[in-house]
Write a structure and sequence with these properties.
505 residues; alpha/beta; ten-stranded mixed β-sheet; 11 helices; globular
Length: 505
Amino acid sequence: MKIAPVLVLGIAAAVSQVCGATPPHILFVAADDLGWNDVGFHGNVDIKTPNLDKLAHEGVILNHTYVQPVCSPTRSCFMSGRFPFHTGLQHAVIKPERGYGLNLSITTVAQQMGKLGYQPHAIGKWHLGFCKKDYLPTQRGFNSFLGYYCGAEDYFTHRRTGSIPKHGRDVGEPEVATNGLDFHRDTPDSFSNVLSDNETYSTFVFSREATQIVENYDESKGPLYLYLPFQAVHGPLEVPPRFLDMYPNIHNKSRKTLSGMVSAMDEAIGNITQAFKQRGLWDNTLMVFTTDNGGPVTVGANNWPLRGSKATVWEGGTRGSAFIHGTMLNKTGYTYNGMMHSVDWYPTLMSVAGGKADDPMLDGMDMWPALQNNLTSPRTGFVYNIDKTGNVSAIRVGKYKYMEGEPGKHDQWYPPAHDDMHLDDYMALHRENADVEKGPWLFDLDVDPLEKNNLYASMPDQVTVMKKALATYMETYVPDLFSQHLPDPKCNPKLHGDSWGPGWC
């Protein structure tokens, strides 16, 4: 079968299909660092996720939905509908000491939903820039925001440690640690620190806020668009003891704690969906659940049987756990095997809301007709990532995956760590005797989803097709912003009321 070298990746979204006379509420839940094997609906009987499992099996499990290798790039896909190599967010995450964010010229999906009459609210992790007010979520289309701007906060104190230059901004300048609060309640007109929730586990704070938004919902102002990117289950690994008690048979500390964190998030999601039901909104709510990247195998997460980890372009780092749920789906209770990418949520949600995403700069495609009716996916390829600074390029053309450079450090197949083996020993065990081949790589994912058979040497014609496609994508490459913004000492929370906040770029 001949595969076209250049794919239509959603330059314009398809004609929208309106769900019905009343646009549905939209609950978009994103887990953080959740691995493929960290949920029950993928067959892991050791993980206790009864609410997620029920929702997934009642809805549609998305078996081939792809995300970026790390946090900020995927969130940029959700908000912009563009691949990160088109927005400069393809390298690493937005560190708290670097003064940039999602390009302010981009109209976010929240702004689009507001134009369509929705009430957009955000709760949880932002991670798309905060060095000036214009980058904040309530300046990018959300009516309210409760959460944190950076990443890796303490779940109880809501404080974040960062590194800033000791004297200036020169490359190689010695750095010193600094620490500040990163927990905020914002509106379009104001932003302030949330101090009253200090020592409250963030998963519970976010669940409570979502429940209150639902309970106080004013239907005269339009349907809800609730964007809920949880902190869970990103490190640091922290969870209340009662969730650890649910896993007496897991003795590896990291795996046990992460499993408890997954179950805490599952409980929170159960509480939120119950609030929708009690308010009489659930029967007209479309719920999306997705991870932002694969799980980091070095800190308790697991992507078995997929290859690789978070921060890699192997399938374990980019094939995300996801499902959708709602009465507006014409077929449910099955697994959808069509290809989808996180950039597609932008035009898809607009279609669900009764709009049309016609921005020619979009990479996303309207998946709603396919998801609603179990039709063939309009997507036949995508870009895993192109990152010149990180020396990695990876693309998909039909069933073929092509990678050049350095796909990522943790490149093996890692079963869950259930015993009390030290992390270094666990990683060494699964690298011992491993045949770590050098790239480039070509895989036929239809027959080799675990990426065990590199076809690069045996299929030169297909390699030529892939290289031509990659070269075409390179023509629209935008240099990454990470490399253009050195750590800035003006970010120091001590200069901003002991808080990571705007006003320094």
